[in-house]
Amino acid sequence: MELSVIIPVFNEEAALPALRARLCPVLNTCTSDYEIIFSNDGSTDTTPSLIKAWAMEDKRVKMISLSRRFGKEAAMLAGLAASTGQGVVLMDADLQDPPELIAVFWEKFKAGFDNVYGVRKDRSSDSFLKRITAGVFYKLYNHLAETPIPYNAGDYRLLSRRAVNAVLALPERERFTKGLFAWVGYKAAAIPFTRENRTAGHTKWNYWKLWNFALGGFTASTTIPLKLWTYFGLCISAASFLFALWTAYKKIAFGNPVSGYTSLMVAILFFSGIQLITLGIIGEYLSRIFNEVKARPAYFIDEKINL
Ligand code: UDP
Ligand code: MG
Known about the structure:
- It is a single chain.
- Helix 1 (16-30) runs parallel beside helix 4.
- The model has no long low-confidence stretch (mean pLDDT 87).
- An 8-stranded mixed sheet has the order 7-5-6-4-1-2-3-8, sandwiched between helices.
- The chain has 307 residues and is of the alpha/beta class.
- It folds into 2 domains: 3-202 and 297-305, Spore Coat Polysaccharide Biosynthesis Protein SpsA, Chain A; 224-294, no CATH class.
- The two termini are 13 Å apart.
- It is built from 10 helices and 8 strands.
- It is elongated.
- Helix 2 (47-57) links the parallel strand 2 and strand 3.
- Bound molecules: uridine-5'-diphosphate and magnesium ion (MG).
- Residues 8-10, 12, 41, 69, 71-72, 75, 92-94, 96, 203-205 line the site of uridine-5'-diphosphate.
- Magnesium ion (MG) binds at residues 92, 94, 96, 198, 203.
């Protein structure tokens, strides 16, 4: 198999016809030896039956159905595991990732790149808040994480077989795929593109989910938030020691008029806050360690079509 295209889908019945019309012509210009693997992430609408009907007509269209909704990350993983292509494309079903770009990815792949990813030229189609939060996330992540991730790159990309195998060899269950692609290394190339608006249906993301996604990204890629507090604690201890010296000196020199309610309250509230934050951060890591230790599979497969 030369080319696999993996498309995670969750309730995308409205997007599928347009996807079909645009995707197939592009793939045919690359190679005829391709497969399209839909990773059905527990859709509850007619998505699976639409794909099945398509798969009956074309054996190159395949589907792997998960036993329930496990999330996009797990769905992509299932698709990667099922793929056999030398080049493997990951794309969304909603045509926000223009299929025409696959031809460009393919060229780059043929030129020897292992990880050809799309980078958004601008985020003008996003809301102001989304742009700001995304900017902060990338800045912070690339500051803290061992391997930086490219700005404004999503999951839309073409990976070589060895890059896919490397990603599959990582056993972790809490998967921040974007980080993993960068972590495995190999030769990467960025292709700028304009992300279109969703053709149909609506996004499954909201800010709470994005926040948790970002947290997952940090905790999966860096332990700095855990270690930070040691140094913070050291600084505070040093400052407290100096303050103690100063208070002792004041007492000896000037006696001890009772005052300082405000500073006391501020100190108590401030440090209680810091301690709770620290506990929260430890909790974030602990919950992830808990999930890794349970070692549950990332997904279960309900059925496979043409696979
Ligand atoms: N998706 C999925 N499982 C989910 C949520 C989304 O498989 O739990 C799929 C969805 O069908 C689409 C892709 O992931 O093909 C991207 O989702 P969406 O368009 O909602 O995300 P956005 O483009 O807004 O980031
Ligand atoms: Mg989308």
